[in-house]
Amino acid sequence: MTGTGRRGLVSAAAAAGAGLDVACAVNAAWNALTYVYDPGLFLDVVSLGLVYDVRGEDGVIVVEMTLAGPGYLAADRLPQMARAAVAEAAGGARAVGLRLAWDPPWSPAMTGGLAGVGPGQLPGRTLGAHGGPPVSCTGRK
Question: Given a cut of 50, is residue 132 above it in pLDDT?
Fold first, then answer.
């Protein structure tokens, strides 16, 4: 299928072009965020629990995320990296908004037990690893 991402998911750009609903674009955004690695913690932002929500709002893909702390070393780069990854997944078909949230504050408990896992040791992910069910990209609006 054309327009599929690195993990075989339909990209948001392909979804928008094919007339698929925003749920597929949101799924592509979640997928893209699993490739954004925190340079200091060596895990992706989804596994770290830094991404609180990804949703569609009036045609915009909105990412709500936090950082490991207000004075964190990657505080200037990580949100830019996340926005760029989602924008690439969207292929310019949708606008991307990123909101930093500090409540609830991030803690290592949000990693779901991955805090002690080193680089290259992540268990395999499945579709829907963001906490919701897998999103099918086969339906139309």
Answer: no
**pTM exceeding 0.85:** no
The count of residues in the chain is 141
With tokens 């690439």, the residue in question is: 88
Paired strand residues for 65: 51, 100
- CA–CA dist 80, 82 (Å, integer): 5
- The residue with tokens 């339906």 is 139
Residue 36 phi, psi dihedral angles, 5° rounding: -95, 110
CATH fold, domain 12-108, is: GMP Synthetase; Chain A, domain 3 (3.30.300)
Each residue of 3-17: pLDDT tens digit? 333 333 444 444 444
CA 12-46-114 angle, 5° bins: 150
Q: Is the pLDDT of residue 136 over 70?
A: no
